[in-house]
Design a protein that fits this description.
Largest sheet of chain B: 7 strands, mixed
Radius of gyration of chain B: 13 Å
Number of helices of chain B: 0
Order of helices and strands of chain B: EEEEEEEEEEE
Order of helices and strands of chain A: EEEEEEEEEEEE
Strand content of chain B: over 45%
Radius of gyration of chain A: 13 Å
Helix content of chain A: under 10%
Number of strands of chain A: 12
Structural class of chain A: mainly beta
Oligomer: heterodimer
Shape of chain A: globular
Distance between the termini of chain A: 41 Å
Largest interface: A-B, 23 and 28 residues
Strand content of chain A: over 45%
Helix content of chain B: under 10%
Shape of chain B: globular
């Protein structure tokens, strides 16, 4: 069965600091990987996704993530965070054609102006 | 284009009562999913419809939960009778396609259920 681990539950950063949120998954086969974000008072929305090809994927609002197959990781990064990035971030995995998407526990990011 | 809509946004009921949550997916989306998040924990998969058929209901906790999607449009999730541990936020999501996975789930804002 597929599973996702997010090790940081709550992260507090000052504006302009760099961000890296960890995500590890457990599944031995082909995977599709996602980061979703939930801004305060809003619904979950897709930040970026990896299906195949270049393991470094870029998403909206300057976010990127790198798929490292050997480490079963898909960490989310942003070089310089803004106050508006305050949100909860969820890593998720889908094992190819099997359509269930499994989510992690989420990481709350608080950016201090 | 309207997004995924869920109703009610918040429901407070007593243990033993019944609650029905409704989800209207994006028009044309064959795939409809129900997820639940208990406070501080992961967003847990409950089930997946393709049109009106249940593709995967492996995440449904027990037989107190009944999901339907008559006609392949909106879906309802009924909890009867509700227990304290059923409290949480119930998310509905939809996506296009019936074959390969499209890569994006579109979520509703969730229905918060509080069982007292």
């Amino acid at each position: 069965a597929q599973s996702v681990s997010q090790h940081n539950h709550h992260v507090i950063l000052s504006e302009a600091a760099s961000l890296e949120l960890g995500c590890n998954y457990s599944y031995g086969g082909t995977v599709n990987l996602f980061w979703y974000v939930q801004y305060p008072g809003q619904h979950l929305q897709l930040l970026l996704k990896y299906f195949s090809g270049d393991p470094l994927v870029k998403g909206i609002k300057g976010f990127e993530a790198e798929f490292i197959k050997s480490k079963f990781s898909f960490n989310l990064r942003k070089p310089s965070v803004q106050w508006s990035d305050t949100a909860e971030y969820f890593c998720a995995v889908n094992s190819g054609g099997y359509q269930k998407v499994t989510f992690g526990t989420g990481t709350k990011l608080q950016v201090i102006p | 284009e309207a997004g995924v809509t869920q109703f009610p946004s918040h429901s407070v009921i007593e243990k033993g009562q019944t609650v029905t949550l409704r989800c209207d997916p994006i028009s044309g989306h064959d795939n409809l999913y129900w997820y639940r998040r208990v406070m501080g924990k992961e967003i847990k998969f409950l089930l997946h419809f393709v049109k009106e058929s249940k593709q995967d209901e492996s995440g449904m906790p027990n037989n107190r939960f009944l999901a339907e999607r008559t006609g392949g449009t909106y879906s309802t999730l009924k909890v009867q009778p509700a227990e304290l541990e059923d409290s949480g936020v119930y998310f509905c999501a939809s996506s296009q396609g019936t074959g390969g996975y499209t890569g994006e789930l579109f979520f509703g804002e969730g229905s918060r259920l509080t069982v007292l």
